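Subject: Interface between my chains keeps coming out wrong

I've been trying for a while to get a sensible model of this assembly. When I model each chain on its own everything looks fine, but I need the whole thing in one frame so I can look at the contacts. Pasting all components below, labels as-is. Any help appreciated, I'm running out of ideas.
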Amino acid sequence: MAVKTVKIGLEVHCQLTSLKSKLFCSCPTDYRGKPPNTNICPVCMGEPGTLPVLNKEALRSAIMIALALHSDISRFTYFTRKNYFYPDMAKNFQISQYDGVGGAPLAKGGYVVLNNGKTVRIRRIQLEEDPARLIYEGSIDTAPSALVDYNRHGIALVEIVTEPDMSSPEEARLFLQKLRSILEHLGVFDGELEGAMRCDANISLEGGVRVEIKNISSYKEVERALMFEITRQSNLLSRGIKIARETRFWDERRRITVSLRTKETEEDYRYFPEPDLPPIVLTDEFLDDVKRKLPMLPDERRRVFVEKYGVSEQNADVLVSDKALADFFEKCLKHYDKAQELSSLLVGDFLAQLHSLNMSIRDVKVSPSQIAKLLKLLDDKVLTGLSAKTVLREMIATGEDPESIIQKKELHRISSRDMLTELVDQVFTMNPKAVEDALVNEKAIHFLVGQVMRMTRGKADPTLVREIVEEKLGKIEPNRVG
Amino acid sequence: MPQKKSITAKDIRHLAWLAKLDLSKKEEETFRSQLSKILEYFSKIDEANTEGLPPTFHVVEQYNIFREDEPCQFPSDLVLQNPPKKKGRFIKAARIV
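Reply #2:
Try treating it as a single job with all components included. I did that and got this:
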């Protein structure tokens, strides 16, 4: 099947997780892990006679995001009611913003540059309230009723809508990763929190129509959902079946998209200006103040890592794609000044070990000074690169000092020539065939060296072992030739 | 003069669907005629001359009313007295979709 041109646009919803209270009421935001309907009040539950009031910090955070995404901020903006009957909103409408006639979203335009160099344009940025969480007893298709937990309802959400500028599921993931890093650098968002970033995607294949996918719960799921949709649509197209312009639902458990058969159209939401919230007028002074206080963003930080510290571009890309990792790198740098070596350890073995331990950088027990110690031990040739991996793994999991791990596990590098010569002798005796091969084939030398490394569980100084092996081979060769 | 638009039975059925209401044929007709009258009444507004006037979205001349980001825990058990159907601390709602 020929690969068709794919156009992908995203509608990303990010909670402003650093806020202490909800968007329009004072309910606390620490709802995760709390019993259902604990963080609720008459305002977020939409009871008669209550009045929402905008959280000043939420507005400020949203403006920071708009500035960081090079978006054009409206000097005059207000909220809009989006009306629909669905129990995830206690009021039967969502306080949102609207980018249509009679609406004025917070910001329009802007862009994000991905790590692969591609520019993804932003269409609009707006503030709105998060809906409640619905639980169905049994399956969604058969449950007679829904159980609603309004704890999440009213949490401040920033909606970021892109133009359809991404051309593969991978680019959609890159976009979300970059966006996450930017938001984390701004200090307004923590992507580690469950459900903090969710998105809808629209996708069209050449010769098809636009299909919207809802309910993508994380940036990890976005690639999967889009891959499925590309396969589904290209199968239909190749069989000459017309693709329906529709909204589909990503079923995370079954890993498929299903048609939502919605009959609602845009005008059915009956958008109108929210009468309970007065409009917002933003002055240049206010915007300039926010702009001046913007922290360093990933692109700038990457430049500092490369130009000031001398980190390779590839390593810098990986470091700044996760704020916590970049922060950790800078803390380590205070104890160890070979930035490139340090960055290579972090983006290489360190991340690999985190991954295999299924840990996040936020859970690591190891301190920056301990990482520095490990690198110094490597520099001083106290242990081999192979043993360093073992030590690092232990350090990450337990927070123990590298020296004591080396002591405990007897991981000191073996650099005694006598001891290694003895081991090389043993290997030669045990592998006569390999020795013969090594005489004619350079590659077989690796095997012999590898055997010694195995016998010492990676502790032998590999350079020295190779030297001894080569010397020994050199002594055999003249005999054979002669 | 703007065109007078009367509400059809089809409009009523669509509105009822949006509001998740089941209407009998008789109710459809009742609401159709009532809503038509309401719209007719409001169409008087169309007669006003708004030439050159900026659109008004809010009637109160107030701007930038904010609150500080300070959390305050409301006694949620009080709020939970209001919903008619519950299961434990969950609020029970009709299944839609």
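Reply #3:
Confirming on my end. Residues 211 and 246 of chain A are 5 Å apart (CA to CA).
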